[in-house]
Amino acid sequence: MATKKNIPVVEWEYAPSLEGTSHIQLKKQYDLFIDGKWVKPSSGKYFQTINPANEEVLSEVAYGNEKDVDLAVKAARKAYTEVWSVMPAAERAKYIYRIARLMQERARELAVIETLDAGKTIRESRDIDVPLACNHFFYYAGWADKLEYAFPNRKVESIGVAGQIIPWNFPLLMAAWKIAPALAAGNTVVLKPAETTPLTALKLAEIIEASGLPAGVVNIVTGFGDTGAAIVNHTDVDKIAFTGSTNVGKMIQKAVAGTGKKLTLELGGKSANIIFDDAPIDQAVEGIINGIFFNQGHVCCAGSRLFVQENVADKVIAKLKDRLNSLYLGNPLDKNTDIGAINSKEQLETINKYIKIGKQEGAEMYQPSCSIPKKGFYCPPTLFTNVAQSNVIAQEEIFGPVLTIQTFRTVDEVIQKANNTPFGLAAGVWTDKGSRIFNLTTKLRAGVIWANTYNKFDPTSPFGGYKESGFGREGGLHGLSSYVKLV
Ligand code: NAI
Ligand code: MG
Q: Does 14 map to a domain?
């Protein structure tokens, strides 16, 4: 052990602590899950899904088209009218509980597959994605036979067939957010996972199959944007729930206009994390790290814009830089890893494009010196200081580990700056004063506001945005209300 000014300096790196993969079962090829059966795509086409951490092919997945979507919608309609909507609610609840328990039993396998397919760290998939996904099923199972208490003095009816399209940043969790409330309210489902992360939804289909859920109640159709569009445009779908980019969300809104389909959209964000000078600075620094570097910044509510009160800015930025230097980037299956792989080559290119724009705009960039694996898609955690409110990097969603830092002096100034974006998904406020928290929570135009914490989720609390971040809520009672008709 070397010493530096008599202080011992540890020269070794952490040994890898890799989660095993021998306990997981992945097929070479996956078909579509329609009407309780695994069916070949009518086009005969399959596409590969890779591990973005090393670019190795994990499996081949069916490319569903309009015909396949039509089969899935027909199966969902039949299951809705003949079985699911007429089944006593307490019986429906039993199936949903059973799915939740089966997911828990296979939690380790689900977490490893999520990490392999998405590039997110095993720490997150194991501690956040999978337990939260299970809890969403448990939570909504509890509501299934209590709908008249959820909406007192109203007659509650199901909607019918729900078409659900989900993104790649929380693949299993987004499937749970969408499927669990839909089933609890008596609807049937056609769900399309994202093209880069279809595997945990297919594993969920296996779990659903094992649960004995009646055929056609949940159908999983894998594919690309055109597969999603076929769901959106199908005339016998009653409700569309979409999470993804704002552009696609706008297209979907146009497509369903005038059709009578119900719609909820959960889109992008550019959320503000606001640090006042009386905040517990060390906790706030951890909150900033968790807010933006968690899941490589692939979080719609990521705290991607930091506002620090001017008199503590130097201190906060110095501590942030120190902390960035201790983050460990690399193999997502390593339990020591803080920052895993970017989900796809395309997303890495998007992030790098924004980093380039940031530098061209004159902002000052800071990245810690860390080694980047040779294979796979990685981006070091990146800070930008000297950022103007009008800079592209302070206005547009980057969806990567990139944080812009601006300063402020007064409460009014920071409220104005924080609200000055087309988005309104989330915000974080760090201060010792409760009154200040309440003042900001009423004035910030964001769907979720965390106080002295960030990125905390719970099935009982609603999540969703203002403005271009979308409309409708997921989670909690609000999430249930998107799947019922109140008469
Ligand atoms: P995307 O919006 O294209 O993909 C999301 C889902 O929509 C995928 O399942 C995709 O196959 C499907 N889809 C694509 N085009 C469709 C269409 N015309 N009709 C119906 N479904 C369609 O997102 P993408 O391209 O993967 O990411 C681009 C950007 O979107 C990211 O850089 C990020 O800024 C944002 N994004 C936001 C997310 C959020 O949670 N709000 C999640 C993922 C991406
Ligand atoms: Mg993949």
A: no
- 64 with 125, same domain: the answer is yes
Active site residue 266: yes
Contacts of 374 (CB under 8 A, 6+ apart): none
Mark whether 227 and 307 lie in a shared domain: no
Q: Which residues surround ligand 2, an ion (CB under 5 A)?
A: 49, 117, 196
Q: Which helix (H) or strand (E) covers residue 275, if one does?
A: strand 272-275
Task: Choose the catalytic residue: 300, 301, 379, 397.
Answer: 300
Domain of 340 in residue numbering reads as 272-458
263 contacts: CB under 8 Å, gap ≥ 6: 239, 240, 241, 242, 252, 253, 256, 472
Same domain, yes or no, for 134 and 239? Answer: yes
pLDDT tens per residue, range 35-63: 999 999 999 999 999 999 999 999 999 99
- pLDDT digits 0-9 by tens, 315-324: 999 999 999 9
Report the number of distinct structural domains present in the chain. 2
* Catalytic (active site) residue 379: no
Residues 410-454 have pLDDT tens digits of: 999 999 999 999 999 999 999 999 999 999 999 999 999 999 999
Residues 6+ apart with CB under 8 A from 131: 107
Burial class of 341 by CB neighbour count within 10 A (0 to 12, 13 to 18, 19+): buried
Give the CATH number, domain containing residue 41.
3.40.605.10
Q: In whole angstroms, what is the distance from residue 248 CA to residue 254 CA?
A: 10
Residue 222 resides in a domain:
yes
Do both 87 and 235 map to the same domain? yes
pTM of the model: 0.96
Query: Can you tell me whether residue 467 is helix, strand or coil?
Result: helix
